[in-house]
Q: What sequence folds into this?
């Protein structure tokens, strides 16, 4: 019987998967802004909804562009950042469009 030295066991820490926090933040803010901003075309309540939804939508656009820049560098989160940007721009378009529509309606009335 030959002597075998004890085997060395190496424990390695698991590596967390890469993420893009700016892109995820953009997506969350875009969804929140969109859910609130969808009510902006309705009379009376829409004024409040448009005012409240404007800030999350604007922040979704800012964080979406930052997330895209990060995804170009790391290769992670491009789709999430683009989705946040789409929600942000779409919400802003709905708010601006409904505001212009109501202003036009008031002007001709």
A:
């Amino acid at each position: 019987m030959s002597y075998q030295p004890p085997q060395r066991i190496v424990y390695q820490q698991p590596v967390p998967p890469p993420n893009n926090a700016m892109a995820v933040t953009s997506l969350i803010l875009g969804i929140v802004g969109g859910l609130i901003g969808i009510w902006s075309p309705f009379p009376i309540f829409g004024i409040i909804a448009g005012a409240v939804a404007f800030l999350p939508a604007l922040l979704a656009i800012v964080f979406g562009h930052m997330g895209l820049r990060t995804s170009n560098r790391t290769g992670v989160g491009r789709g999430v950042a683009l989705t946040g940007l789409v929600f942000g721009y779409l919400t802003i378009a709905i708010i601006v469009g409904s505001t212009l529509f109501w202003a036009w309606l008031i002007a001709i009335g």
The radius of gyration is 24 Å. Residues 31 and 69 are 21 Å apart (CA to CA).
